[in-house]
Amino acid sequence: MSDKDIVICRCEDITLGEIRSLLDEGFLTVDEVKRISRCGMGPCQGKTCRDLVLQEISLKTGRPVKDLRMPTFRPPTKPVKLGVIARGEEDDV
Amino acid sequence: MSKCWDAVIIGGGVHGCSLAYHLASQGLRPLVLERSYLASGGTGRSAAGVRHQFGTEVNCLLAIENIRAFERIQEELDYPWDIEFQQGGYLLIAYSEGQLGQFQENVALQQRLGIDSVMLSPEETLRLVPELNPEGVLGASYCAKDGHVNPFHLTWAYARAAERLGATIRQYCPVISITGDDRGVRGVVTPDGTIECPNVVVAAGPWGPSLVEPLGLEVPLYSERHQIMVTEPVERFLDPMILCFDDGTYWKQTPHGSVIMGIGDPMELKGLFMSSSWSFLEEAALRISSHMPSTLGLRVVRQWAGLYDITPDSQAIIGPTPVEGLYLDLGWSGHGLQFAPSVGRILAQLISGQEPFIPVDALGLDRFQTGRLIPEPACV
Ligand SMILES: Cc1cc2nc3c(=O)[nH]c(=O)nc-3n(C[C@H](O)[C@H](O)[C@H](O)COP(=O)(O)OP(=O)(O)OC[C@H]3O[C@@H](n4cnc5c(N)ncnc54)[C@H](O)[C@@H]3O)c2cc1C
Question: Angle at Cα B361 formed by Cα B313 and Cα B147, nearest 5°?
Fold first, then answer.
């Protein structure tokens, strides 16, 4: 399987190949990769792809994952209907 | 560091990067110092709106140039990703006689300057956005050529074009202080050493005033948190960005399909606080769904907070200062993203000793001494 077939971010449909080409372009933090590609901006908010992107950055830069800059985690953690927030309606998920 | 720079720009937001591009286009060598990543400040937190509809002559004149620049920016900067400039219009709705009168005044000014904005009756407003709750709508001001641009891509596009032309951009490099005295600047101090330079431009948003204070400059601006929430992408249902100055709400659908919603809140935290709050979600959801009930079914995926750098007249402070070689590009009061094209070009002209293509004396720091403030009425 080529890296063009490996989907890293399912919410926004972004492949490993796309991530690697951004790293080649010099975008070497999760924050930059996220904002250029939308990787991690979908409904799951990066729950799986963030770690995969971190691993790729680590591979590319040779720095251990624990030394890399982490992006800010933003609320809410699960998509919530506006109606639930505005008037406490029942959510149907 | 022995390199010779023509100008050091503090801040890698959209303004710092646009200025770097315009200086480099003139053959000068700028150095941008950004303490975090590019667009990590106000730029990356904005609602990404660009418009003609302002209420002061200087802003309208600059706005005409901004939109002209956006129309050709993708090619001009030769950028590989989509900058997402899209003209879905801006609809400013009036819910009070006072606001309606202000819009009429603004539109008269805009039309005199050649801007295609119009006043709409309540019926015309609802025809444009049928999903609006008609209750209380007195009319609106509308310009079809206003729209959206992606703040990250815009900033990166300027940065990459600037680098191709010889600019240097350093991320994760904070400026600790500016060297010099009340007569002139000498350079800046960073953790990696001192950089000498005859010109220093402070484009550091709300963090700017504390950098220039030691040189004897008082910049009257305060920072205020503003928050936004964004929904999952849905099928296209809304073209214009909608602003209601009466209650400070705004919302729009981005080219990606998500809906961005924000409110201006007089009770918002002042100062450099940037945490998100639940009360914002509740307040924004209540107010915006009352304007457009169909938003109740949208799912919010994320919220964020950013800072406005607000001046006493809600106008930017740009241009030279009494300190020789020190320039400011600050105080955008919540509408600065869209002014990066025109103001980057103007500051580059000022720094290289040319006449600016649009006079911006009215936006100088000295107005707070002379008392010649020019309040911008069209702000959230
Ligand atoms: C919620 C919200 C919504 C908005 N909506 C809109 C909109 O729809 N349309 C619009 O036109 N505008 C909007 N704005 C305003 C707009 O985002 C700003 O006016 C604009 O981005 C300012 O750009 P800038 O480059 O001047 O500042 P910033 O983007 O804040 O850049 C300043 C940079 O300086 C860096 N910095 C600070 N101190 C130092 C230091 N000591 N050394 C090195 N670097 C330093 C910071 O890290 C930052 O990156 C909005 C703002 C917010 C917060």
Answer: 60
Cβ pair B143, B325 in contact under 8 A = no
Query: Of the residues B337, B338, B379, which should be mutated to test ligand 1's pocket, given the most ligand atoms within 8 Å of the CB?
Result: B337
Q: Which of B51, B63, B287 is nearest to A82 (CA)?
A: B287
Structure confidence at residue B271 as a pLDDT band (50, 70, 90):
confident
Structure-token pair, residue B328: 């400011």
- Tell me whether B295 touches chain A (CB under 8 Å): yes
Give per-residue pLDDT as tens, B140-179.
999 999 999 999 999 999 999 999 999 999 999 999 999 9
Query: Whole-angstrom Cα distance, residue A29 to residue B142?
Result: 40
Residue B90 has pLDDT above 60, yes or no: yes
Q: Tell me the pLDDT tens digit for each residue of B24-34.
A: 999 999 999 99
Name the maximum alpha-carbon separation found in chain B: 65
ipTM confidence: 0.85
| Dihedrals phi, psi of A49, to nearest 5 degrees | -70, -25
Query: Which of B21, B43, B156 has the most ligand 1 atoms within 8 A of CB, as the residue to mutate?
Result: B43
